[in-house]
Amino acid sequence: MNSRLAGGVLATLAALFNGTVGVISVNLFTAGLSAQAVAFYKCLLALAVLGAVLLVSGQWPAVIRYLQAKWRHAAVCAFFGFFMLYNFETAAYQYVNVAVVVFCLFGTSTVTTFIFSAVLEKRGLRAADVFSVGVSLLGLSLIFLDVGSIGVGSYAGIGYGVLSGIGYGVFLVLSKRFELGGGLVAVFALMLFGVAYLAVPFALAGLSVPAADSLPVLLLLAVLPTIGGFWCTVKALTLLNSQSVQLIELTEPVFAMVIGFMVLGQVTTLLQAFGGGLILLAIAVHEWLQRRAAQVTG
Predict the structure, then answer these.
(1) How far is the C-alpha of 184 from the C-alpha of 14, rounded, in Å?
(2) CA-CA distance, 106 to 241, in Å (whole number)?
(3) How far does CA 106 lie from the centroid of its chain?
(4) Over residues 265-291, mean pLDDT
(5) CA distances from 99 to 16, 136, 143, 248 (A)
(6) DSSP run (H or E) holding 113
(7) Residue of 8, 251, 229, 250 whose CA lies nearest to 110
(8) 84, 168 in Cβ contact below 8 A?
(9) pLDDT by residue (tens digit) across 195-253?
(10) Residue 272: partners with Cβ closer than 8 Å, 6 or more residues away
(11) Which residues have a Cβ under 8 Å from the Cβ of 62 and sit 6 or more positions away?
(12) H helices of 144-205, where?
């Protein structure tokens, strides 16, 4: 499997794992946990699981070496990828429908990734970038076109969703630029700083202990999107540029539609199917242009 294909598979898996965040978080809210508690505990449990794996596999010396070499970069990226993403995304689910949060997060993160990449590289947006962003946002809009059914009505929830998208977009670009790596050691280092950041809003909101029956759900949230989704994302960033990873992860709402049909019998409308097709088209065109550009420069 070549590197671009492997990166695409990993980014797709990240989208699949991350698609579970909203539903699981909402279930934890009904169990009495605050948004700050959910964000903190899922990362704390994920950190504990990763720490145990690294300890058993004898990789603690590698963790120490990594932190000595990369702690500044890891601290910066964790602020955007953990504090901004998880703190504001989880808070947004308390105010608006999961679909609205997903739309705000991915729409904002897509624009942020492409613009921030261009700024750091001191270049203008390429025609391929503008096309990919425009088509993907159009597809995303069609998927969530029925505004009345998804309950857009809280500016706070939408604002939190936008902030989480900005954080994720900046994280994707900086992780690639800082070459953080894609192993479990890198994910552990990011999560270590992330837990420290998330402890602040958790403490300010009032410390609380989850009920025993909430622990299995929290563990599921820690393992699937927090460890699985995050590892797939950072690993994909070692194989693809941040713009490609961002576009491919836009398949998350497409997966949600397919899973909703298979598990819940929810029927996808023609507009939603067309929107999903546009997202896939944007990904295919962007990757084809990237490959063609690489062949020309090579």
Answers:
(1) 15
(2) 17
(3) 8
(4) 77
(5) 15, 16, 9, 18
(6) helix 98-120
(7) 250
(8) yes
(9) 999 999 999 998 889 988 999 999 999 998 899 999 999 999 999 989 899 989 888 77
(10) 142, 143, 145, 257
(11) 54, 185
(12) 147-150, 155-178, 184-205
| Token pair for 10 | 């990993």
**In angstroms, what is the C-alpha Rg of the chain?**
19
Instruction: State both tokens at 162.
Output: 């936008």
∠ CA 284-98-78, rounded to 5°: 70
Its pTM surpasses 0.70 = yes
Contact 82, 197 (CB under 8 A): yes
Chain position carrying tokens 């425009």: 134
Provide long-range contacts, Cβ within 8 A and 24+ apart, for 30-34: 31/210, 31/211, 31/213, 31/214, 31/217, 32/211, 32/214, 33/208, 33/210, 33/214, 34/205, 34/206, 34/208
Residue-wise pLDDT for 98-111, tens only, equals 777 877 888 889 89
Q: Whose structure tokens read 């009345």?
A: 148
With CA atoms as reference, report the closest residue to 151 among 85, 107, 106, 92. 92
